[in-house]
């Protein structure tokens, strides 16, 4: 059974940094795309970034380019999101997700971790 478990959220001042982790288990993810999404209070969930596990190809929403970096550690089956220069508008619940490379829909989701950026 596939399981995604996020960690690393918290409270940080504007301009600070956080690193989120997503521990993946239950199968091989070599044919998967791993992504981070976020949902702020009262808003729809939005795509943040994704990485193709096998190739390392990445994609970012414009609002986080140059500030956030997605990566994976194959040995640990873990995905990371390094967030620098955080802004109050980055405040949200962050979710990791996984989908097969040939699918557009994400099949598996974590429970989410809260990130709060104070001004």
What is the compact description of this entry?
The protein has 119 residues and is mainly beta. The protein is 0% helix and 54% strand.
What is the N-to-C order of secondary-structure elements (H for helix, E for strand)? EEEEEEEEEEE
Q: How would you sum up the global shape?
A: globular
Radius of gyration in whole Å, from Cα? 13 Å
Count of strand segments: 11
Count of alpha/pi helices: 0
Percent helix: under 10%
Strand content: over 45%
Please, what is the average pLDDT?
A: 96
Q: Please mark out the parts with pLDDT under 50 across 5 or more consecutive residues, or reply none.
A: none
First-to-last CA distance:
40 Å
| Structural category | mainly beta
Task: Please tell me about this protein's structure.
With 119 residues, the chain is an all-beta fold. The chain has strands spanning 3-7, 10-13, 18-25, 32-39, 46-52, 58-60, 68-73, 78-83, 92-100, 108-109, 113-118. Strands 2, 4, 5, 6, 9, 10 and 11 form a seven-stranded mixed beta sheet that branches. Strands 1-3-8-7 form a four-stranded antiparallel beta sheet, with no helix packed on it. Strand 5 (46-52) and strand 6 (58-60) form a beta hairpin. The model has no long low-confidence stretch (mean pLDDT 96).
